[in-house]
Amino acid sequence: MRRGIERRQAFWGFLFITPWLAGFLLFTLGPMLASLALSFCRYDMARLQFVGAANYERLLTRDPLFWRALWNTATYTLFAVPLGLTGSLLLALLLNRNVRGLALYRTLYYLPSLIPAVATALLWNWVFNANFGILNQALRAAGMARPPEWLQDPHWALPALIVMSLWGIGGGRMIIFLAGLQGIPQSYYEAAAIDGAGRWQKFRHVTLPMLTPIIFFNLVMGIIGSFQVFTAAYIMTGGGPANATLFYVLYLFRQAFEQLRMGYASAMAWVLFLILLGFTAIQFRQARRWVYYEGEPQ
Amino acid sequence: MSANGRHAWRRLKALAIYALLTGGAVVFSIPLLWCVSAAFKDVQTVFRVPVQWIPRPAHPENFRDAWRVLPFARFVANTLIVTGFAVVGQVLSASLVAYGFARFRFRGRNALFMLLLSTMLLPAQVTMIPVFLIWRRLGLVDTFAPLVLPAYLGGGAFTIFLLRQFYLTLPRELDEAAMLDGCSYFGIWRHIVLPLSRPALITVLLFSFLGHWDEFMGPLIYLHSPEKLTVSIGLRLFQDQYGQTNLPLLMAASLLHILPVVLIFLAGQRYFIKGIAMTGLKE
After folding, report:
1. Quick check: A273 and B122 CB within 8 A?
2. Is residue B33 within 8 Å of B217, Cβ to Cβ?
3. Residue B45 pLDDT more than 60?
4. From A15, A24, A269, residue closest to B125, measured CB to CB
5. CA-based end-to-end distance of chain B
6. How many CB atoms lie within 10 A of CB B107?
7. Neighbouring C-alpha atoms within 13 Å toward the C-beta of A191
8. d(CA B57, CA B45)
9. In Å, how far are A170, A201, B12, B18 from B6, measured between CA atoms?
10. Which are the contacts of A284, defined by CB distance < 8 A and separation ≥ 6?
């Protein structure tokens, strides 16, 4: 009898998860293996030829654009992720202070993150316009005689895209922080106050530890997302000027769908995957030192 | 410090916080306000320095023109078709899978669930090329199929996770009572779980809509014929043709792309906020 119930449970359980299981095999695991195989081939959608590690060798030793793209993407990530995370946290802290009109502020700050990526790119294209853009109009009004030419200047194009990414700090990440802040039991602060903790100490020893799981989650997902930055560069700069905003995925996309170097692009995809896997593994390892999970046995 | 002084100090601080929040909100709104303003201008006034925030004369006909030039209405219809079918598939299949993970005990369940979650860490580029080759082999490139059909296979880790979290909170007694009444597992899902999880389903549906409405790289890879493009790809065409010559028209078209998203958000705001908070906090 028990056996029968268990079997029925297993049968129906598998049946319900079948859509995902099929999708996983068909659109994730299968293609992953195929892409790994392709990365050792040359394939222009007509002829398939095994070339061993030649793609990887060329990628790592003879393709300066690959390194440029990796450098651009890493630089972008190095600034956009920590700045964005800190910005979201600060905004959540401000909004968590019994602010009147919270819903209105939350909506106003959330709105930019909702705007479709293409519309955002088209819009900011003109915000950054050297002559007519509102950013430079403001800078000139503030007394800067010759503000940067942003997207036309190889030194300023990447910083411009980083600034643009900060427009989204009020998005989902901030809402998660806000919910996290509101979920910290008041009694913890009271206990800290009895121990004589000041405001900074309360933040340092109660708020921050309680938020570390959220910070960790956002950091991991933020780095993965940031390494895949694509649309902004594709629409606004086309990777320029002088390859200053040639991002990794943009270069990969061009190799695959414009040059039809499917094998080479697959090798690029696997290198990206391994880089992100490495980052994620390091972060999970580090997490033991700084991420605090409540109620978890040590 | 005297009690009075402390009181004044506290008020000053509250004032500073409001000033900071309001100032920030204004700065954050400026690009969007500029877009709205530019969409009502003509080719001369749009480049005027300093910016003329209230367009005079206003040209609401920009929206009509944006709707007509290029087959923009066609792009909107295509996007609605793709988004509509994909959203239905994503919500329904994710709900089935989430129910399976939440309610049934079977060998390997936890391992499979971890596997599901780990797919969130996988960059799409690793599967992108072979998946494209599959669709090409099936002769379905330049159709909506590659953008719609995958949604019916599970609907993605994030969606499944969110719904499973919700299903874990539903009381099991209801399932058991329905069982005694002779309801099948599928019947329980259909008649008990689905109706009870309406708020969670709406949340997921809204996210799904935004995700598909916004999608760029998928349509860029799969759609080629001008009459099949979605808005996000069509806008790029718009940019190429009018970006330099008729900026107000481009901004009007962009606003038409933005508007549905904003309206949906305002209508379903509480579902959004709750849903986002839910995903971030548990586990």
Report:
1. yes
2. no
3. yes
4. A269
5. 45
6. 11
7. 8
8. 9
9. 32, 20, 10, 19
10. A220
Question: What does the pLDDT look like over A132-170, one tens digit per residue?
Answer: 899 999 999 999 989 999 999 999 999 999 999 999 999
Contact B29 A108 (CB under 8 A): yes
The fold of B63-281 is: MetI-like fold (1.10.3720)
- Residues of B with CB below 8 A from A99's CB? 17-18, 21
Give the pLDDT confidence score for residue A298 in this predicted structure.
Answer: 39
Topology of the domain comprising A63-290 = MetI-like fold (1.10.3720)
Residue A6 in tokens: 């268990």
Q: What is the ipTM of this complex?
A: 0.91
The secondary element (H helix, E strand) that includes residue A224 is helix A208-227
The total number of residues shown for chain A amounts to: 298
Q: Mean pLDDT, to the nearest integer, of B134-146?
A: 96
Nearest CB to A20; choose among B116, B124, B214? B116
Residue B140 has pLDDT above 60, yes or no: yes
Q: Using an 8 Å Cβ cutoff, are B131 and A23 in contact?
A: no
Most confident of A93-107, B139-153, B226-240: B139-153
A9/B153 Cβ within 8 A: no
Is the model's pLDDT at B100 over the cut of 50?
yes
Rounded CA-CA distance A232/A264 in Å is 24
CB within 8 Å of A15: residues ≥ 6 apart: B100
Q: Point out the residues of chain A with pLDDT beneath 70.
A: 1-2, 295-298
pLDDT at B1 over 80: no
Q: From residue B128, how far is each of A140, B27, B204, B245 by CA, in Å?
A: 45, 38, 24, 36
d(CA A232, CA B189): 42
On whether the CB atoms of residues B78 and B230 are closer than 8 A, the answer is yes
Global confidence as pTM: 0.93
Residue type, B34: W
Handedness of CA A188, A191, A195, A197 (dihedral sign): positive
- Sketch the domain layout of chain A as residue ranges: 63-290
CB–CB of B280 and A179 under 8 A?
yes
Q: CA-to-CA distance for B219 and B242, rounded, in angstroms?
A: 21
d(CA B96, CA B160): 9
Query: Smallest CA–CA separation between B52 and chain A, in Å?
Result: 11
Whether B140 contacts B146, CB under 8 Å = yes
Q: Are B163 and B95 in contact (CB under 8 A)?
A: yes
**Torsion (CA) A25, A27, A32, A33 in degrees, nearest 10:** 50
A50 forms beta bridges with: A41
CB atoms within 10 A of CB B266: 12
Among A5-9, B50-54, B113-117, B181-185, name the most confident range: B113-117
